């Protein structure tokens, strides 16, 4: 028959280290030395890092925090980067996947607006100068496109811009003088305003004819300028024709099916 000793505590003669049996197990106070241990380590706490050696089993790292970057090696698994913030640009390498860029900011939008207009009928200048106030249409040939919204045909010859930004405006004309007419010069001026009231020349171009011909002679003139459109209600432009008034009349050509006198407006970027 086996023997048993029943005690409620065992204490070393030096008074340190105790073994206390209880109905649910054994409580040991002091240092325990052994070759191997088995069982659950769920309640182990405050283990010095120097005493943890060997290969750790596969565990959940859900509660790991403040891991030094130097201690993270190997290939990271595929994870969601939804909460990553402040990633330095130098650390982003490789090919980015196809993403929705609708919320990207600080990136130049490129050309967002472009449109061409043309004069639909010939205008004959009999005075020294005059604005081209009517007979404008969009260039609507089948192969011609446009970009952006907010465009409008000129009102009484005044062109407006569809949105703020930096624009390039190009104006071109083909004109002729009647046979036997000596015309030292004639051309067009691109005039702009920043207050929707007073206009000044931004660019001008002309051509000249110094001999008398039996038949008409045709000329071309082209003017272009950059506009900083900070306010679409105030910044506008118009096309003005001019000639040497001491000589013959000048006909600035227009046609609804071809571009003889026309204007191109292209938004290059933000103001």
Please provide a written account of the structure.
The chain contains no helices and 15 strands. By secondary structure, it is mainly beta. The protein has a domain of 156 residues: Jelly Rolls (Sandwich), CATH 2.60.120. The strands form 3 sheets. Strands 4, 5, 7, 9, 12, 14 and 15 form a 7-stranded antiparallel beta sheet that branches. Strands 6, 8, 10, 11 and 13 form a 5-stranded antiparallel beta sheet that branches. 17% of the residues are buried.
Keywords:
7-stranded antiparallel sheet; Jelly Rolls; mainly beta; 271 residues; rod-shaped
Question: How would you summarize the topology of this molecule?
Answer:
Elements: E1 10-11, E2 18-22, E3 25-29, E4 114-119, E5 121-125, E6 129-131, E7 136-138, E8 159-160, E9 165-177, E10 183-193, E11 200-209, E12 217-229, E13 236-243, E14 250-255, E15 262-269
Antiparallel strand pairs: 1-2, 2-3, 4-7, 4-15, 5-14, 6-13, 8-13, 9-12, 9-14, 9-15, 10-11, 10-13
Summarize the entry for a quick read.
With 271 residues, the chain is mainly beta. It has a domain at 114-269: Jelly Rolls, CATH 2.60.120.40.
The CATH topology label of the domain at 114-269 is: Jelly Rolls
State the order of secondary-structure elements, H for helix, E for strand.
EEEEEEEEEEEEEEE
N- and C-termini, Cα separation: 101 Å
- Beta-strand level of the residues, as a percent range? 35-45%
Mean pLDDT rating: 85
Reading off the top of the CATH hierarchy, the class of the domain at 114-269 is best stated as: Mainly Beta
Number of β-strand runs: 15
Please state the structural category: mainly beta
Specify the oligomeric state. single chain
Identify low-pLDDT runs.
Answer: none
Question: Which CATH architecture of the domain at 114-269?
Answer: Sandwich
What's the helix count? 0
Helix content: under 10%
Characterize the overall form. Answer: rod-shaped
What kind of sheet is the major sheet?
Answer: 7 strands, antiparallel
The radius of gyration computed from the alpha-carbon positions, rounded to a whole number of angstroms, is 43 Å
């Amino acid at each position: 028959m086996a023997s048993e000793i029943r005690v409620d505590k065992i204490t070393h003669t030096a008074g340190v280290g105790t073994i206390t049996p209880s109905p649910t197990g054994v409580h040991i106070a002091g240092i325990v030395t052994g070759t191997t241990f088995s069982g659950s380590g769920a309640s182990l706490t405050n283990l010095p890092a120097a005493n943890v050696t060997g290969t750790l089993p596969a565990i959940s790292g859900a509660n790991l925090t403040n891991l030094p970057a130097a201690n993270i090696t190997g290939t990271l698994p595929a994870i969601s980067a939804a909460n990553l913030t402040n990633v330095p640009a130098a650390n982003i390498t490789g090919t980015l996947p196809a993403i929705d860029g609708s919320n990207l900011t600080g990136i130049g939008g490129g050309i967002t607006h472009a449109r061409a207009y043309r004069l639909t009928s010939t205008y004959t200048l009999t005075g020294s100068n005059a604005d081209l106030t009517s007979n404008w249409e969009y260039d609507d040939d089948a192969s011609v496109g446009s970009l952006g919204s907010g465009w409008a045909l000129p009102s009484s010859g005044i062109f407006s811009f569809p949105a703020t930004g930096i624009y390039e405006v190009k104006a071109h004309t083909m004109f002729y003088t009647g046979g036997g007419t000596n015309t030292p010069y004639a051309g067009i001026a691109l005039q702009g305003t920043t207050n929707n009231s007073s206009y000044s020349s931004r660019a001008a171009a002309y051509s000249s004819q110094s001999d008398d011909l039996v038949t008409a002679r045709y000329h071309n003139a082209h003017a272009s300028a950059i506009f900083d459109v900070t306010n679409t209600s105030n910044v506008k432009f118009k096309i003005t024709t001019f000639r040497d008034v001491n000589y013959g009349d000048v006909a600035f050509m227009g046609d609804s099916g071809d571009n003889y006198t026309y204007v191109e407006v292209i938004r290059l970027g933000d103001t």
